[in-house]
Amino acid sequence: MATPVAPLHQEASASRLKITSVKTLAESSNLTSIPSHYAFTTSTSGDQAVHTDHDDSIPVIDFSLLSSSNSDQRSKVVSDLAKACQDWGFFMVINHGMPESQMKATVDAFMRFFDLTDEEKSDFQGKNLLNPIRCGTSINTSVDKVLFWRDYLKVKVHPEFHCPTKPEGLSEVFAGYSSAVRKLARGLLEGISESLGLEMGYIDKAMNMESSLQILTANLYPPCPQPELAMGLPPHSDHGLLTILMQNGIGGLQVNHGGKWVNVDPLPNAFLVNTGDHLEIMSNGKYKSVLHRAVVNSKATRMSIPQSIGPSPDTVVEPVEQLLDGENNRAMYLAMKCKDYLELHLSNVLNGKSRLERVKI
Ligand SMILES: O=C(O)CCC(=O)C(=O)O
Ligand SMILES: [Fe+2]
């Protein structure tokens, strides 16, 4: 009988290890190295990221121009959107109209949640991935072999609004923030519809955005004593049409562009937007959802607040017929209800774009 090979890492199995939040772990005194079940030895964590240079950096979209009465300005921003979605799948949005104080209040509200003790947070540690309020650590500790260096809170805020009851006062902040972001997303989708050669209101109507599925997430990445060995979030694409992200001023997001990992340091008070799997499906692959990941650092706590804006849960998403012409005349993706895609998304280990592959024809 062959001798069993010793596992490279002590695997994180919820039944064997008491898994605390990364925040609790990082705050425990004298932490100079990471526990072995947080250590990645794959090349994904070690490969070098490049900084953007001025000739090839993340596009910037001036949102205020989308409502401009000057038709030249409007068509310029629509063509900027087309280029951004096609070349990068990521862009920054400036002049979006949200006051800085509202952005800061949202970061502070999430920080108050993360400051609860693990015991206090345990009411929201839903094991069921479909729970509308869910907090935890890593991604899915019952299947993750190695843990990710992040804690999270995920809240479904639309079509029904949910919110943790502790600490007090979150619901006003989350409701205001998420409805402002939904408005921003619907405005961007008007420009994106036009950029695809569709009517301005096409995506909004076809995807029933009045009942859009919207999930507000906060990721907390505490300082890590060995950041080169750990990973905040592995490479993945997002479900939904658009993800609209803000962060607390500390970098860590990397975008896969031209086969390289590019560091993204958003402009202060800008939102970072990326196109999701559902936009890739609708556009029949013209606007691809792009791989991104989060790395960690040893100095400062980073918080990112991505919000995924998708079709309504019951909407069937498939390539838009009007876009099936010329070279691109064959539907490349299967039709699937938004909520079924999400279930597929949640029930699989996060691994690049493997979920989108399941609906590719
Ligand atoms: O932390 C980040 O910047 C990225 C977060 C992310 O990609 C996600 O939550 O899907
Ligand atoms: Fe993401």
From TrEMBL:
Q: Answer yes or no on keyword Iron.
A: yes
Any one GO molecular function term: metal ion binding
Name used for this protein in its record: Fe2OG dioxygenase domain-containing protein
Keyword presence, Metal-binding:
yes
What Pfam families would the database entry show? 2OG-FeII_Oxy (PF03171), DIOX_N (PF14226)
What keywords are annotated for this sequence in UniProt? Iron, Metal-binding, Oxidoreductase
What broad taxonomic lineage does this protein's source fall under? Eukaryota, Viridiplantae, Streptophyta, Embryophyta, Tracheophyta
Start and end of every Fe2OG dioxygenase domain? Answer: 211-311
Listed transmembrane segments: none
Q: Which domain of life is it from?
A: Eukaryota
Signal peptide (UniProt feature, chain positions): none
Its family? Belongs to the iron/ascorbate-dependent oxidoreductase family.
